[in-house]
Amino acid sequence: MEQIVAPQALAYVVNIDQAAGLIRKANRILVMGCSGGGKSTLSLEIAARFGFPYISIDRDVLWLPGWVERGREEQRAIVVAKVQGERWIMDGTNPSTFDARLPRTDLVIWVRMPRLLCIWGVVSRWIKWMGRTRPEMAPGCIEKVDWEFLRFIWTFEEKFTPRVLAGLAEHGPEVPVLQLKSRGEMRQLLDLLGRPA
């Protein structure tokens, strides 16, 4: 049975068993998706199991303390430097740096959860970390939720996904892409990764 299909000129991985095998062989993995979908949690789990250095775009590239955004040129310079590493797992979706990230990526994991699940994810995360900064975020960026952020999540598929697809097709059409569309699929992948190869 064929395991990889290429709709929209992308190399989609359609079998979670195959994806687990690709993760075991990969040196560099990009995890992307809408906020609240679980990409940081998944990235940290995989990093711990396989000894990957973990790079968070939010923590390491985008934000300075107090929710101050770094300048675009500095962000890009940091990304370009970090992707030169021999091994890493990076979570972050912004397609503006796909031209630097995708050519160095062995596998993309697209955490593509339903928007209500993503909203629940950010609200529950805010409750858990209220008044504090979570480890995947830059120091001094106290966890917050506002209407603008919720609107971004609600409209992510319509507004942002076309840019993601275009970026993948332009800068990494040969990079395998696994889409995880439910918590069950995510658990299945982690269960497989926890078993001996």
UniProtKB/TrEMBL annotation:
UniProt-listed SUPFAM superfamilies: P-loop containing nucleoside triphosphate hydrolases
Q: Which residues form a coiled coil?
A: none
Kindly give the InterPro entries that the UniProt entry links to this protein. Cytidylate_Kinase-2 (IPR052922), P-loop_NTPase (IPR027417)
What the entry lists under Gene3D superfamilies is as follows: P-loop containing nucleotide triphosphate hydrolases (3.40.50.300)
Task: Please report the name of this protein according to its UniProt entry.
Answer: AAA family ATPase
Annotated organism of origin: Rhizobium lusitanum
